Amino acid sequence: MSPESTGQNEHYISVARRRFRTWRGDRPFWAGLFTILGGAPIAYFPYADLHLGNMTLTMSTTAGAGSLIIGVLLITLGLTMWFHHIVRVFAGIAAILLALISIPVANIGGFLIGFLFALVGGALSISWAPGRPENEQAPSDEQPYEERPEAELQGAAAVPQQQGAEFDTAADADGGRHRAG
Q1: For residue 123, how many other CB atoms are within 10 A of its CB?
Q2: Do 49 and 57 form a contact (C-beta atoms < 8 A)?
Q3: pTM of the entire structure?
Q4: Rg of the Cα trace of the chain?
Q5: Predicted local confidence at residue 143, as pLDDT
Q6: pLDDT for the residue numbered 33
Q7: Dihedral through CA 73, CA 75, CA 81, CA 83, nearest 10?
Q8: Residues 122, 92: Cα–Cα separation, whole Å
Q9: d(CA 106, CA 70)
Q10: Dihedrals φ, ψ of 29, to 5°?
Q11: CA-to-CA distance for 106 and 62, rounded, in angstroms?
Q12: If DSSP states are collapsed to H, E and C, what string results for the chain?
């Protein structure tokens, strides 16, 4: 074994952290996290009891079932953003709509905490786009024709390119006049 070999003596926490970073980079992770964090207070506050000494304050409302449904759906949409990132636009729009519905239904959207988190999560989900793989390059006009990959050359050979006026040496030699004149 050489001292330059990597990965053999790494700690399992480093390996798990690297795998989590790779997994997180392939999906709208923060959008899902904000949506889950938005659904939790919306579902929790209507059923919460606050104890102040011997006095108990109950936040139970008539819309408790609606709050629970909205909160559970937001948590489900957050998990959908993580594990089925293909439907991220649908999940983002649904999260924004559920956040807006939670204002009148669920104690002002979980006292605006859940509303804001779900709104930001939905917006992040809609705006997220998967990145390009590192080994895939966009065609570059800076690269000389002779050094381009063969697949790019075959695609370019199908369409003839026009050359601009800067290559017309006859026009420059005569001062721009026509030869016959």
Answers
A1: 17
A2: yes
A3: 0.64
A4: 30
A5: 57
A6: 95
A7: -110
A8: 4
A9: 8
A10: -65, -50
A11: 10
A12: CCCCCCCCCCCHHHHHHHHHHHHHHCCCHHHHHHHHHHHHHHHHHHHCEEEECCEEEECCCCCHHHHHHHHHHHHHHHHHHHHCHHHHHHHHHHHHHHHHHHHHHCHHHHHCHHHHHHHHHHHHHHHCCCCCCCCCCCCCCCCCHHHCCHHHHHHHHCCCCCCCHHHCHHHHHCCCCCCCC
Helix 113-127 with 88-105: angle, nearest 10 deg: 160
Q: Whose CA is closest to 91, among 28, 152, 150, 143?
A: 28
Q: Hey, what are 91's tokens?
A: 């999940």
Tokens at residue 36, please? 């889950």
**Residue ranges in the chain modelled with pLDDT below 50:** 1, 153
Give me 18's structure tokens.
């690297």
Tokens representing 119 are: 């709104």
Tell me the residue length of the chain. 181
Tell me the two tokens of residue 58. Answer: 């109950």
